[in-house]
Amino acid sequence: MADTPDRLLVRLAARQHAVFTRRQALECGFTPKMIQGRLDLGLWRPWHRGVYGLTGAPVIWISRLMAACLATGGYASHRSAAALFGLWPQGAIEVIVPRGVRRSRSGVVVREAGDLRRGDLSTLDGVPITTVPRLLVDLAAVLDPSRYEEVLDRAMTRRLVTPDRLRRRAVGVAHGVHGASVLHTALEARGNRPETRLERIVLEILHRGGFDNFEPQVWVTANGERFRLDLADTARRIAVEVDENHHAELSQWKRDVRRQTLLVAMGWTFLRFTEDDARSPQVIWDRAAAVLARIDNPPGRQSSAEA
After folding, report:
1. Average pLDDT of the segment spanning 189-193
2. For residues 197 and 153, is the Cβ–Cβ distance under 8 A?
3. Disulfide engineering: 47 pairs with which of 43, 51, 118, 140, CB 3.0-4.6 Å?
4. b/e per residue, 132-170, with b = 16+ CB within 10 A?
């Protein structure tokens, strides 16, 4: 059965959350008269000038965001980009475009930028979007410091970005630019510190318990690959992983399993603590003490008193 314009368009719209442009409809074989006819019959709904949606498809936030990107030629950015990555509640419709091509649209916050780079741009779930480092640079200009710290913590907890990668993208963001001080302050605070609030709490608990050999942000090499550990006692090869109360993506979970498998084969021991554990410091101290006792006094080794 030969493809008709309607079939071609439905397949295209399915990849774009039921949203498409007039140009795309023409490329599928529709004539201007056919397009007007679909609109008059109510088969298509207008979203913005030259952007339509299939009637009957649910009107959801991601469809609105996709329509905004198509209408402006922009990329989901700021709070919209953060929401698509699961770092912020869905709601705002914000897109970013190169400076000088601003196209205002009803219900859409269109932001111009003169420093968009190819590496800042990506696609997520079919939606054009800025990368995590870029959206974190942009968010610093629109969020107050405490809210920004929360988003930054979430991104680092989920390993969507590292301080080093964010620092590299922040190069060139002048201190005089609005929001730049928020960004640079947040990065400076993470010099050699744990990346997230929960990692900071667990490290503090360990140090309070006398486990002073644990350090944050330790890089190790296994099988020719470099891995970052949340906290580690490198002398005893004890790694501490801090698990936030969130559902990790399958790909991240697989990477974590691979890392742990390789390091255990090299003699590392892993301790994992959750947010619930951090509410009971004694739990953390007891587990750490048990592991240290096993490593410092392995079975078969006589103590000095027994020798």
Report:
1. 63
2. yes
3. 51
4. bbbbbbbbbbbbeeeebbebbbbbbbbebbbbeebeebb
